[in-house]
């Protein structure tokens, strides 16, 4: 069974800084990581492969240095890696991204039929959760988002049963292969590859495709040109005009401070007292 | 089948990268194993890079290495709780074509240097910790064991560059634990500020940098120093003291740094900055007396793991780079000559180090760490006296200057006694000699 | 697997041209639509929040506001239609079909896609729930239009375009995104980010029915089962009127008792900042903030929380924020309404006692 996992290299957002004057992202020295949500997809793919045989191909679209994350994925145990990189891809929004990725997946499929495409639930930089469904739509794959568990795969009859997180409960869905799965977080833990995996990853030669190699015919579908959305403005959140009114604490006991706080809150919002009374009575 | 290499280098810090690069460039089949997520991810340094040690490896490194600023001004501040007395040395001569000292961010520099090693043909494996050395029945080191399945890897020689804790060597019985009075614990923060703000606050142009070395009461009576270095868009601020002092005084290093940050001479320099990294790291400060056995049957040890830090001049990275390079050069020579990596043959490394500045400098200052450690007045009494003296002298208050001088002299005598003063001077002179 | 479908030709200057050049075929697109999310007969309240927001956009544009209701024929749909009038809709597009009993991507994408192509809205809003995100992502692809996810603010600019503002780069910045040359302009909004509108009883509007035109044999995905959450009724943090939360400043999981004690006295729900969840002090559904729950309580009490931007965006909708923090310079004081500089471990129990006494007295009096 051939499984494709889409992973994205993202800046570690915990370490992103914003220039206080120009409001631009200071990327210098911000380490990049594999989008953490994608690791759940990768592990699930590796488990499927271990169970059913076949191979896992990891795919990413990004700048040349995104090869780091592909190599990392190989170190976790993936079998092959494809880097999609081209200046034509720069500035892609989700529609253009899903176009590029689905074109490449179609090419991989032509080389070796793909049964399942995995993506993460969402990225931590784009945060849209749209790329997975976009790929599914374009390739006509059965779409399974927010999957929390794969119950069974019937390779012979080409069907799959999964649990999907829905509002207020879990749907148990059965659908046909090929399908696209966006994997929910916390569903598994990425394995630690063996020393052999690390050697294989270090020696592997990655497949690098530009837009043409991937099979893109119309460059206007890619990157900024292929993106219907336009980012017009980027700005820092405005601080509230007034700062918090501080309850005086100097030389007071906690009980006195608490008392003063109650007076302040109730004076500011006379209705609050009644609301609280109702709530506390109800509970 | 288990893999076999000409050499395995443990660690991708300064020493490890220098060794790996040198080995790979000479055509050896070398494996480098790093515990961090990527080379440099765990490495903490002030950080000043001395150019000549890198030049010895890569002469034109300035062309694409990630360098923050070259240092044009060196300040030495002695603080008491409210003031500082200090010296500044700034020179246009430091704006030379090939500057001698740079500030760097280790995470970036190490990654870059490692890439040179990889490009030279080394295999680098990260997120993998070496647990111990593998030995044959004669005790010869034949490889390493890592914390992954099938983690045994073999080589003719293992180059230990695993930094100050040197756990691999300790676990494998080739060196002792670092003594608490021979290591300083340094805590450091990165304060991010726009480039223009840094330029303005330190009165420098875009690529020019300032270093401030800080002594005095900020160490709360412990032996240690603080530092402030300007990077491109950040300021590295830190303080380090001898571990045994921390233990004895029960002082929390984080609080020490808070105190330094709040000092009226430091606070304005970092005001408004965004703090992104807090890191704590050991520095080997025992000097020559802390240096272990440097090589043996199938192994050599370099950099911090070999205790190669010159605390008096705050040099470490250059000793690491140089020792890593020298180790590799000697391994290459043995390999080319078809000689085995035996204890006797690897003594070549020890000899080459004796002839280099690495061991010469460490020997020169061999008594300094102990002298200072036993005489805390250098970090407690003197800074306050100096600050008081300077203030008394500068304040114009109708008291004549001669009287002031006498008062100042009296205050020094009172605090340390005449013999104490003379003794202190002699102690420092001896240790420094 | 088919080849990727090629979208319609791009207008001059590329699809994303920074200037509005709306092609001829989109000129007829009009009205603001809100997708009413109904799962198992119940409407998700995010849909009403969106109707409230959609009303403002429609008024600004001088167009009608439509509710799009899809589900199996029956009472559920009738209720949804009536509620839509109460929350401000002028018209309702209804696709009632037994095939829509359970949410499935294929049926809903097909139905909504056909409806959009036929009745041509200029703006289409969906909740950023699991259902809404699943549907919006595929619909935007079949329609080849722009979709802005997780918006925190929606407005109409001078060019009559939708200005959709959302957090970016992990919440450190906000950005405003436009879909200038394609229609509809799509956006999703997370539950509780927009305020719940007031109901206006007695309003009504036109109902326009639309067929699904599908047969079960042609739908590949089957719903085998639905396992309702056991806890879903218990944790309703997003909708609580009063919330008490703790952060790392509480120091240990045991100290969370001080938070739950206060919450109990106030009849409040409780939660925590992300690190408290990551450390396992609290379960994941108690996380408040950008990657957790957005809350809009009347009163929010935050103890030992520094007020990072990712936390802030989840609580800013609160009417009143009281922050307790030991550090007078903590960021949280920049957006809290009231602040207590002090040790939460002492202040929290004191507050609990004071509220208990006060509310007890009031209860006696009434
Ligand atoms: C706060 C501070 C400020 C400093 N300032 C300066 C300065 O201004 N100028 C200067 O020249 N020097 C300075 N130094 C000293 C300098 O940083 C060190 O001397 C130098 O980094 C030593 O290099 P190294 O390669 O020996 O060790 P390190 O740089 O520590 O590298 C060791 C590497 O080995 C890896 N490792 C450890 N154990 C294992 C294992 N078991 N398996 C695999 N990998 C392992 C580590 O992750 C690390 O990457 C400073 C040090 C500190 C802490
Ligand atoms: C992509 C991304 C998404 C994120 N999403 C979220 C999210 O959804 N929700 C979220 O909360 N965070 C989120 N975060 C994390 C966020 O950036 C902060 O790290 C986090 O909110 C900090 O939690 P904290 O305030 O509990 O801890 P800290 O920042 O450590 O603050 C603790 C506070 O407690 C105070 N304190 C200490 N002791 C006491 C005492 N005894 N009494 C009173 N006060 C005391 C301290 O002064 C300090 O202000 C996200 C981060 C990223 C990068
Ligand atoms: N540039 C990319 N390369 C590969 N996969 C991607 C890329 N962008 C997004 N994805 C995949 O799509 C998922 C959802 O991304 P997003 O829509 O950006 O939240 C991610 O978890 C990835 O699996």
TrEMBL record, chain A:
Tree of life domain: Bacteria
Domain Electron transfer flavoprotein alpha/beta-subunit N-terminal: 22-218
One function term, GO molecular function aspect: electron transfer activity
UniProtKB keywords: Electron transport, Transport
Family: Belongs to the ETF beta-subunit/FixA family.
Subunit structure: FixA and FixB form a heterodimer.
Function per UniProt: May play a role in a redox process involved in nitrogen fixation.
Name this polypeptide is given: Protein FixA
From TrEMBL, chain B:
SUPFAM superfamilies, A to Z: FAD-linked reductases, C-terminal domain (SSF54373), FAD/NAD(P)-binding domain (SSF51905)
Record-level Gene Ontology MF annotations: FAD binding; oxidoreductase activity
Keyword Oxidoreductase: yes
Flavoprotein in keyword set: yes
Limits of the FAD-binding domain: 6-189
Keywords: FAD, Flavoprotein, Oxidoreductase
Pfam family, one: ETF-QO_FixC_C
Names of required cofactors: FAD
InterPro entries associated with the record: FAD-bd, FAD/NAD-bd_sf, FixC-like, FixC-like_C
Domain FixC-like C-terminal: 368-433
Protein task: Could be required for the formation of a functional nitrogenase Fe protein. Probably accepts electrons from FixA/FixB and reduces a quinone. Part of an electron transfer system.
Protein family: Belongs to the ETF-QO/FixC family.
Name of the protein in question: Protein FixC
UniProtKB/TrEMBL annotation, chain C:
Region (Disordered): 1-20
Superkingdom to which the source organism belongs: Bacteria
Record note on cofactor: Binds 1 FAD per dimer.
Keywords, ordered alphabetically: Electron transport, FAD, Flavoprotein, Transport
CDD domains: ETF_alpha
Record SUPFAM superfamilies: Adenine nucleotide alpha hydrolases-like, DHS-like NAD/FAD-binding domain
Annotated residues for binding of FAD: 273-274, 287-291, 304-311, 325
InterPro entries: DHS-like_NAD/FAD-binding_dom, ETF_a/b_N, ETF_a/FixB, ETF_alpha_N, ETF_asu_C, ETF_asu_C_CS, Rossmann-like_a/b/a_fold
Ranges of biased composition (kind: Low complexity): 1-12
Record-linked Pfam families: ETF, ETF_alpha
GO BP annotations, alphabetical order: fatty acid beta-oxidation using acyl-CoA dehydrogenase
PROSITE patterns for this protein: ETF_ALPHA
Necessary cofactors: FAD
Domain Electron transfer flavoprotein alpha/beta-subunit N-terminal span(s) in chain numbering: 32-223
GO terms, molecular function: electron transfer activity; flavin adenine dinucleotide binding
Protein family: Belongs to the ETF alpha-subunit/FixB family.
PANTHER family the record matches: ELECTRON TRANSFER FLAVOPROTEIN ALPHA, ELECTRON TRANSFER FLAVOPROTEIN SUBUNIT ALPHA, MITOCHONDRIAL
Protein name per Swiss-Prot or TrEMBL: Protein FixB
């Amino acid at each position: 069974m051939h499984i494709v996992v889409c992973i994205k290299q993202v800046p570690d957002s915990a370490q992103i800084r914003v220039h206080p004057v120009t409001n631009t992202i200071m990327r210098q020295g911000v380490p990049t990581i594999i989008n953490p949500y994608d690791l759940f997809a990768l592990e699930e793919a590796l488990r499927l492969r271990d169970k059913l045989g076949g191979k896992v191909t990891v795919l990413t679209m990004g700048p040349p240095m995104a090869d780091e994350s592909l190599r990392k994925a190989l170190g976790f145990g993936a079998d092959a890696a494809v880097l999609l990189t081209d200046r034509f891809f720069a500035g892609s929004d989700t529609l253009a991204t899903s176009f590029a990725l689905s074109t490449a997946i179609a090419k991989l499929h032509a080389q070796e039929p793909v049964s399942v495409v995995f993506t993460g639930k969402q990225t931590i930089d784009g945060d849209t959760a749209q790329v997975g469904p976009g790929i599914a739509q374009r390739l006509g794959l059965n779409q399974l988002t927010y999957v929390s568990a794969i119950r069974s795969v019937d390779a012979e009859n080409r069907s799959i049963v999964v649990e999907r997180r829905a509002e207020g409960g879990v749907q148990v869905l059965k659908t046909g292969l090929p399908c696209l799965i966006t994997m929910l977080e916390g569903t598994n833990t990425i394995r630690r590859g063996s020393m052999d995996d690390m050697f294989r990853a270090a020696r592997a030669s990655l497949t690098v495709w530009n837009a043409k190699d991937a099979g893109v015919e119309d460059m206007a579908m890619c990157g900024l040109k292929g993106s219907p959305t336009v980012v017009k403005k980027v700005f820092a959140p405005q601080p509230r005009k007034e700062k918090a009114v501080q309850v005086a604490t100097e030389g007071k006991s906690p009980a006195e401070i608490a008392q003063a706080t109650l007076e302040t809150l109730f004076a500011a919002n006379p209705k609050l007292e009644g609301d609280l009374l109702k709530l506390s009575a109800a509970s | 089948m288990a893999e076999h290499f000409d050499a395995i280098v443990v660690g991708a810090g300064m020493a490890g990268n220098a060794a790996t690069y040198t080995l790979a460039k000479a055509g050896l089949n070398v494996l480098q194993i790093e515990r961090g997520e990527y080379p440099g991810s765990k490495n903490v340094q002030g950080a000043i890079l001395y150019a000549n040690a890198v030049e010895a490896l890569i002469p034109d490194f300035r062309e694409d290495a990630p360098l923050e600023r070259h240092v044009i001004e060196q300040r030495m501040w002695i603080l008491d709780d409210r003031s500082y007395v200090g010296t500044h040395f700034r020179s246009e001569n430091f704006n030379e074509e090939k500057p001698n000292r740079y500030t760097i961010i280790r995470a970036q520099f190490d990654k870059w240097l490692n890439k040179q090693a990889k490009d030279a043909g080394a295999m680098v494996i990260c997120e993998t910790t070496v647990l111990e050395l593998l030995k044959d029945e004669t005790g010869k080191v034949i490889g390493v064991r890592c914390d992954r399945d099938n983690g045994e890897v073999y080589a003719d020689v293992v180059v230990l560059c695993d930094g100050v804790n040197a756990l691999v060597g300790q676990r494998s019985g080739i060196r002792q634990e670092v003594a608490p009075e021979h290591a300083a614990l340094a805590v450091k923060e990165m304060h991010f500020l726009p480039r223009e703000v840094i330029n303005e606050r330190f009165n420098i142009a875009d690529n020019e940098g300032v270093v401030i070395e800080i002594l005095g009461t900020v160490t709360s009576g412990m032996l240690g120093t603080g530092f402030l270095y300007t990077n491109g868009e950040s300021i590295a601020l830190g303080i380090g003291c001898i571990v045994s002092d921390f233990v004895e005084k029960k002082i929390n290093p984080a609080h020490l740094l808070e105190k330094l940050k709040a000092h009226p001479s430091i606070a304005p320099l970092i005001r408004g900055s965004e703090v992104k990294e807090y890191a704590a790291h050991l520095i080997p400060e025992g000097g020559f007396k802390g240096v272990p056995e440097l090589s043996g049957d199938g192994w050599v040890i370099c950099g911090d793991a070999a205790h190669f830090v010159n605390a008096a001049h705050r040099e470490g990275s250059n000793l690491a780079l140089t020792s890593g390079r020298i180790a590799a050069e000697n391994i290459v020579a043995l390999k080319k000559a078809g000689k085995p990596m035996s204890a006797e043959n690897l003594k070549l490394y020890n000899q080459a180090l004796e002839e280099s500045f690495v061991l010469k400098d460490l020997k020169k200052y061999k008594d300094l760490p102990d002298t200072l450690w036993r005489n805390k007045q250098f970090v407690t009494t003197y800074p306050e006296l100096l600050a008081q003296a300077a203030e008394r002298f500068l304040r114009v208050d109708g008291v004549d200057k001669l009287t002031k001088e006498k008062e100042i002299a009296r205050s020094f005598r009172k605090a340390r006694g005449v013999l104490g003063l003379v003794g202190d001077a002699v102690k420092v002179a001896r240790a420094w000699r | 697997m088919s080849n990727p479908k090629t979208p319609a030709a791009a207008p001059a200057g590329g699809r994303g041209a920074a200037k509005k050049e709306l092609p001829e075929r989109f000129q007829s697109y009009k009205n603001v639509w809100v997708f009413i999310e109904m799962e198992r007969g119940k409407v998700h309240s995010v849909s009403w929040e969106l109707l409230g927001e959609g009303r403002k956009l429609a008024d600004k544009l001088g167009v009608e506001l439509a509710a799009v209701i899809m589900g199996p024929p029956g009472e559920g749909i009738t209720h949804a239609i009536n509620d839509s009038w109460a929350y401000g809709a002028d018209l309702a597009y209804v696709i009632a079909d037994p095939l829509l009993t359970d949410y499935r991507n294929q049926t809903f994408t097909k139905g909504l896609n056909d409806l959009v192509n036929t009745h041509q809205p200029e703006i289409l809003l969906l909740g950023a729930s699991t259902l809404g995100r699943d549907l919006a992502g595929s619909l935007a692809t079949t329609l080849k239009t722009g979709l802005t996810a997780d918006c925190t603010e929606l407005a109409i600019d001078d060019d009559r375009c939708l200005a959709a503002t959302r957090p970016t780069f992990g919440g450190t910045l906000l950005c405003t995104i436009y879909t200038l040359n394609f229609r509809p302009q799509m956006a999703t909004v997370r539950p509780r980010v927009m305020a719940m509108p007031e109901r206006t009883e007695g309003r009504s509007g036109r109902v326009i029915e639309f067929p699904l035109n599908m047969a079960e044999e042609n739908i590949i995905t089957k719903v085998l089962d639905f396992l309702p959450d056991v806890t879903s009724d218990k944790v309703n943090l997003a909708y609580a009127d009063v919330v008490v939360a703790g952060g790392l400043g509480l120091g240990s999981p045991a100290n969370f008792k001080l938070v739950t004690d206060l919450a109990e006295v106030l009849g409040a729900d409780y939660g925590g900042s992300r690190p408290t969840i990551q450390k396992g002090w609290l379960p994941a559904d108690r996380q408040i903030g950008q990657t957790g729950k957005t809350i809009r309580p009347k009163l929010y009490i935050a103890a030992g929380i520094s007020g990072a931007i990712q936390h802030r965006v989840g609580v800013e909708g609160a009417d009143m924020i009281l922050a307790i923090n030991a550090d007078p310079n903590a960021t949280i004081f920049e957006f809290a309404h009231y602040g207590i500089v002090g040790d939460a471990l002492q202040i929290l129990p004191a507050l609990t006692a004071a509220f208990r006494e006060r509310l007890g007295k009031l209860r006696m009096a009434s």
